[in-house]
Design a protein that fits this description.
Blueprint: H1 2-26, E1 44-50, E2 56-62, E3 67-73, E4 79-83, E5 85-91, E6 95-100, E7 103-108, E8 114-117, E9 122-125, E10 131-137, E11 143-149, E12 154-166, E13 172-177, E14 181-186, E15 193-196, E16 203-210, E17 213-219, E18 225-230, E19 235-239, E20 251-253, E21 261-262, E22 268-275, H2 297-303, E23 311-316, E24 322-324, E25 332-335, E26 341-345, E27 360-366, E28 371-379, E29 387-388, E30 394-399, E31 402-407, E32 412-415, E33 440-444, E34 449-453, E35 458-462, E36 468-470, E37 479-483, E38 503-504, E39 510-516, E40 522-528, E41 532-539, E42 542-548, E43 555-561, E44 564-571, E45 577-582, E46 595-602, E47 605-612, E48 623-629, H3 653-658, E49 662-666, H4 675-693, E50 696-706, H5 708-717, E51 725-729, H6 735-739, E52 742-743, E53 748-749, H7 751-755, H8 769-774, E54 788-793, H9 802-813, E55 818-823, H10 833-851
Parallel strand pairs: 33-38, 48-49, 48-50, 50-51, 51-54, 54-55
Antiparallel strand pairs: 1-2, 2-3, 3-4, 5-6, 6-7, 7-8, 9-10, 10-11, 11-12, 12-13, 13-14, 14-15, 16-17, 17-18, 18-19, 20-22, 21-22, 22-23, 23-24, 25-26, 26-27, 27-28, 29-30, 30-31, 31-32, 33-34, 34-35, 35-36, 37-39, 39-40, 40-41, 42-43, 43-44, 44-45, 46-47, 47-49, 52-53
Length: 853
């Protein structure tokens, strides 16, 4: 009886459980693959900024048809939304401003009160955050400046100004009143105005302000005038070319925007000279293309004569001395931030050459003495560009895979990485020509140290090269460390003024990114001089877009995985990550693919790729697979892909996985002279590795690629019949004709692309003719058995659409199965949304026809 009682009780409990649980089971949401009509639900999230202390952060969501800017409190998650908002900026911890079309929105983050200022072209906050500067433009195209206080009240106005500039503290403005007056407006107390006494008449331009000096140019006479106003003395000093004995007769002061720089000690003003060139008798009758020209005709037509570009000069304010620093022989120039030295060179010196950017001799001029000497002989244009240290005492540059430092005061060149023990050049680089370096993080703010990268780690090396310290321990675990946040750079108004690497303050905490390509894990570390590198986050995800607060160690970043939508996270001063917002909450309602790494071996070298599963994966079913190729695609392992028809190359991994495909993204490596064969070998090895382990039907595999991937696709289908269908976008198909093509994007020849760049031939057409012929798909067209859909834009200036037409006619003549799409008014990728959707649907239909039937 006892046993019977227990049996009955068990059945009773089980029956009661079923009664209770069955309704709940019936309510479980049955997930489905994403239908096309739901694509519009997805958005792309971008992280923008964070307030100075880190109390607030901003981000935006971009949908196919609209976008919204958000501000969120990092503690309470209180949120404000600004539809179509852009150019957002925090003012302390209490205010946020952004543009909505032409209206400025000012949001009080504490009270929630909001002010709207219509018809505003730009805005700026004062240094103390108490005032707002509004710039508006009326129907006559006249600019107006309005100063508002925190209550939204107008406290000062300026009408009809043409330019304006803050002082360093951002509490005073200099502006050009109309075109012939310069005024100063104080943005505090009584908002007093003061006019700088310019006695001559003429249009004033190019206002610049550094510390106690305001400079500007006046178009007066035939040569113009340059002025420097000293605030501490109230004196206005001027440089008049007509009274300068060594000022060149055929030049005048150039007034192009941003062409003035004040040296740090305010004793020198750098400005540009414009040559006075007569245009008489220049009507073009015929194009003249000389084979030994320094500039080929298209480049000359697009950019003008490089020798006639504006030249750099310096005015020594206290003494009135004038010195021209660049000329026709060396028209390119770079100034140190301190204004003590300048580099000059001629980018076209070795023309005609055929490696992209040719060798050049770089000269250095000591500005104080005017002494000029050769600094670098035959420096490669394809190398790392020379850059000054923050205080201008040193120059960093690269030669033959090492970092060098030049000491201006001691006139010494030092190889600072020769004895490092680890290479600082890219050991995986498989192109011809100059091997790139892993990079430079920047200089210490005191000029004493340079921060450089090797394959895995960050090094701090003294300027004299004697002290070398490895700051991270990435090599031990094959983890690559890099600075995650952009370090502060010196201000620069134009390229010629300054090229200074980022400035790193060794006394502050840094945020470092870390990534392990073997395991696929990545994360963030904090680093300071006392505790070295400490992990903040380490996960099987992608972490990037770090934005750090100015006055605290707080920061935001974005984390995502292929099957987890991007989320915005906040890290406080204690180093604890906290979710602020997770995008695309609808994601959890749908079936979604997963992505994992796959390995394969090519010529004894282990390579990896990414395999994306079908969203509705069933281990009992054999699926078709699409192989997408380019070069290395490992960065896509954790990249979340929104399902959309709006794709620049017609391929969307989430869409294809929802249609029931595996997608393979193999990494490819190359041998010089054999780009096509190298790609084929890697692709087939990757496919074979997948077939051994995964549920893929070997008879239903497709191949696709765009640009260089398009070339690889066309080559591979001409060499193997393993693929049931292929799609090729904007492909090079004839290496001979494309080698001899003029790239109209840059008005240059294409020689370098084949000899030292992506096509990896390594020789000229005339030295390696067989490689050009053997790698041209158009000459292999007779072997193609794979149905091919090709597409291009008829405005493509990167890979001319005639390349696709050549392959079309070759396949047509051979009666192969082929369709070519040529999109009007489209370039190398498809930009028009209707065309994007059309291409995506056509590619889907093409693969469905051959891989699913």
């Amino acid at each position: 009886m006892k046993k019977l009682h227990h049996s009955f009780l068990f059945r009773l409990v089980a029956y009661y459980f079923l009664l209770v649980s069955c309704p709940a089971i019936g309510q479980v949401l049955q997930k489905k693959t994403v239908p096309e009509e739901d694509y519009h639900l997805w958005s792309t999230m971008l992280s923008h900024s964070i307030s100075d202390r880190g109390d607030w952060a901003s981000y935006s969501l971009h949908y196919d048809t609209a976008d919204t800017l958000f501000v969120i409190a990092t503690k309470s998650r209180k949120k404000y939304a600004f539809p179509h908002g852009r150019n957002g900026e925090f003012n302390g911890e209490n205010w946020f401003a952004c543009k909505q079309n032409d209206t400025l929105v000012m949001q009080d983050l504490t009270s929630g009160k909001v002010n709207y200022f219509p018809k505003i072209s730009s805005y700026s906050f004062s240094g103390d955050g108490k005032h707002l500067i509004l710039i508006s433009v009326d129907q006559n195209n006249s600019q107006h400046l309005t100063v508002k206080n925190r209550l939204g009240e107008t406290v000062a106005m300026v009408d009809n100004l043409s330019e304006w500039a803050w002082n360093a503290r951002k509490n005073t403005i200099a502006y050009i009143d109309g075109k012939e007056k310069v005024q100063i407006l104080e943005i505090f107390d009584n908002y007093a105005k003061k006019e700088i006494p310019v006695l001559t008449m003429g249009e004033i331009k190019n206002l610049s302000w550094l510390n106690q000096t305001i400079t500007f140019i006046q178009n007066t006479g035939s040569s113009g005038k340059l002025y420097a106003y000293r605030l501490e003395t109230g004196k206005l000093l001027s440089f008049d070319p007509e009274s300068c004995s060594n000022f060149p007769n055929d030049m005048s002061i150039a007034s192009s925007f941003g062409s003035i720089k004040i040296s740090n000690d305010e004793k020198r003003i750098f400005f540009m000279l414009k040559e006075q060139i007569s245009n008489k008798g220049t009507t073009e009758v015929v194009q003249v293309w000389n084979g030994n020209d320094k500039q080929i005709y298209p480049h000359l037509k697009m950019y003008g004569d490089f020798t006639l570009q504006d030249k750099l000069a310096v005015w020594f304010v206290d003494t009135g001395r004038f010195l021209q620093l660049s000329d026709r022989e060396e028209p390119y120039v770079l100034i140190s931030s301190a204004g003590d030295y300048t580099l000059t060179w001629n980018e076209f010196e070795s023309e005609p050459h055929f490696d992209g950017i040719g060798l050049r001799d770089i000269y250095v001029t000591a500005i104080e003495t005017g002494t000029k000497r050769l600094l670098l002989k035959g420096y490669p244009g394809t190398g790392m560009e020379p850059a000054f240290s923050p205080k201008g005492n040193y120059l960093s540059y690269s030669v033959n895979g090492d970092w060098w430092v030049y000491d201006f005061k001691k006139d010494e060149h030092r190889n600072i990485t020769r004895d490092l023990g680890f290479p600082v050049r890219d050991i995986d680089y498989d192109r011809a020509g100059q091997v790139p370096l892993y990079g430079i993080a920047g200089w210490s703010i005191d000029d004493n140290s340079l921060f450089i990268y090797d394959q895995f780690d960050i090094w701090m090396i003294s300027a004299d090269g004697k002290t070398k310290k490895r700051l991270t321990k990435g090599r031990e675990h094959k983890t690559t460390f890099r600075f995650a946040t952009a370090q502060r750079r010196l201000p620069s108004k134009s390229d010629y003024m300054d090229r200074t690497n980022a400035i790193i303050n060794y006394s502050t905490q840094w945020i470092l990114s870390a990534h392990n390509t073997v395991t696929g894990y990545s994360g963030l570390y904090s680093y300071d001089s006392k505790t070295a590198a400490r992990p903040i986050l380490w996960e099987y995800k992608r972490t990037d877009r770090v934005v750090k607060a100015k006055n605290s160690n707080a920061f935001t970043f974005i984390s995502q995985n292929f099957d987890a939508p991007p989320e915005l996270l906040f890290v406080d001063a204690l180093g604890k990550p906290k979710e602020l917002y997770r995008s695309n909450p609808q994601h959890k309602k749908y079936l979604w693919a997963k992505a994992e790494k796959v390995s394969y071996v090519v010529d004894g070298k282990t390579l990896s790729g990414i395999l994306i599963y079908p969203a509705d994966f069933d281990p009992t079913i054999k699926y078709p697979m699409i192989v997408n190729i380019y070069e290395r695609q490992g960065g896509s392992l954790h990249r979340y892909v929104n399902p959309t028809l709006l794709n620049e190359n017609g391929i969307n991994f989430s869409v294809l996985s929802s249609k029931g495909y595996f997608i393979l993204l193999p990494d490819l490596v190359y041998q010089l002279g054999q780009p096509g064969e190298s790609a084929k070998k890697c692709v087939l090895a990757a496919v074979d590795a997948v077939l051994l382990k995964y549920n893929v039907d070997p008879n239903r595999i497709g191949l696709t690629g765009h640009s260089f991937g398009g070339f690889e696709t066309d080559y591979i289908i001409a060499k193997t019949d393993r693929f049931a269908a292929a799609v090729s976008g904007a492909a090079i198909t004839d290496l001979v004709s494309s080698y001899l093509y003029c790239n109209s994007n840059y008005a240059t020849s294409e020689f370098f692309r084949y000899e030292i760049d992506q096509e990896r031939i390594g020789l000229s057409l005339f030295e390696g003719m067989s490689s050009y012929l053997n790698n041209s798909p158009v000459l292999l067209a007779q072997n193609v058995t794979t149905p091919l859909l090709a597409w291009t834009g008829d405005e493509d200036k990167q890979v001319h659409y005639f390349q696709s037409i050549e392959f079309y006619f070759a396949l047509r003549r051979l009666k192969k199965e082929h369709t070519l799409l040529i999109y009007p008014e489209e370039s190398h990728t498809i930009i028009d949304k209707k065309n994007q959707a059309d291409l995506t649907k056509r590619i889907e239909a093409w693969f469905a026809k051959y891989l699913k039937s």
